[in-house]
Design brief:
single chain; about 325 residues; mainly beta; Jelly Rolls; 2 domains; seven-stranded antiparallel beta sheet; 7 helices; isomerase
């Protein structure tokens, strides 16, 4: 197939959640109609939720079809060699009107054995926070399976978990095994391995509209949890017009770009690049292609595109695989 690639935007896949709200519309301009929309999946190849190109010559094509037809051109030589025709990351925006459940994700080994899936290492960038909004990340002090179970059974689990205030611009990096929950009043950009495996530990005993509680995965979680205290918050620089490193892990690298005016970007062709616009607006100029993006947009730049210009005034997350 002849390549006619350009920077790609996809139709958001909107998800209702018991804890969701309306900020994905009011803050990020997503076309939601529900008052409990919790997630916008921006870039996904999760089975049943595969992203579809939203505009341009390739409009209507799925990300999986594009990768199947042009694996190296889309993914990059290095990513294709490592992952084959799998898109290894999942990109989302989340609106937590209420607290999310307290949960944990398994590592690659457990996820492969149990679910034939990747594990779920992830990071959060806080886009908006209400006063006193907070997240739960790990244990206050080193714990144990026995102590954890005692508090879980007594419904006092929250008392031994680390509770951190979260404000706009904060970044949290969650390795697999970290017990966590996004708190009420937060809008978050999430970058994670391609996985939809979540073990729910505690859901505050809430019930859905039908009066049902959600399933818990207490037994599955026991061997997945890291019971030691962890440091999840990332401090990073914010120098204008450069890529400031935020997270560098085996699964993805994330940079923060405060864009003022324009910068030229040169890539190697080894990996795709994704841009998430978290504030302001910007344009990508490439081979006569020029398109504007705004807050809440997510753009996949195929690996084949090795030189382009970013211009505008925006705060942008830049993600690729090293």
């Amino acid at each position: 197939m002849k390549s006619n690639l350009y920077p790609l935007q996809f139709q958001p896949i909107l998800k209702e959640r018991i804890w969701g709200g309306e900020k994905l519309k009011t803050i990020l301009n997503k076309s939601i109609t529900s008052k409990i929309t919790g997630e916008s999946w921006e870039l996904s190849t999760v089975e049943g939720d595969v992203s579809i190109v939203a505009e341009g010559e390739l409009k209507g094509k799925s990300l999986m079809d594009l990768i199947d037809d042009m694996p190296e051109e889309i993914l990059g030589t290095s990513v294709y060699k490592r992952f084959g025709k799998q898109f290894p990351l999942l990109f989302k925006y989340l609106d937590a009107r209420e607290d999310l459940s307290i949960q944990v994700h398994p590592n690659d080994k457990l996820a492969k054995e149990r679910h034939n899936s990747f594990g779920k290492t992830e990071m959060w960038y806080v886009m908006q926070s209400d006063t006193d909004a907070r997240i739960i990340v790990g244990f206050k002090e080193d714990s144990s399976k026995e102590e954890y179970l005692k508090h879980l059974n007594n419904k006092t689990l929250v008392s031994i978990l680390d509770d951190v205030k979260a404000k706009s611009g904060d970044v949290f990096f969650l390795e697999t095994g970290t017990v966590h929950a996004i708190g009420a009043g937060l809008v978050v950009a999430e970058i994670q391995q391609t996985s939809d495996i979540t073990y729910r530990l505690y859901d505050f005993d809430r019930k859905d509209a039908q009066g049902n509680t959600r399933e818990l995965h207490v037994d599955l979680a026991l061997d997945a949890i890291n019971y030691n205290k962890v440091n999840t918050q990332k401090i990073y620089e914010k120098k204008t017009n450069v890529s400031n490193l935020v997270v560098d892990c085996p699964y993805f690298t994330t940079n923060f770009i405060p864009l003022e005016n324009k910068i030229e970007v040169v890539k190697s062709g080894e990996t795709f690049t994704v841009y998430m616009c978290i504030e302001g607006s910007f344009e990508i100029e490439y081979d006569g292609f020029q398109h504007s993006y705004k807050k809440g947009d997510t753009i996949l730049v195929p690996a084949e595109i090795k030189g382009f210009v970013l211009s505008g005034n925006a705060s942008i997350l830049e993600i690729y695989i090293s």
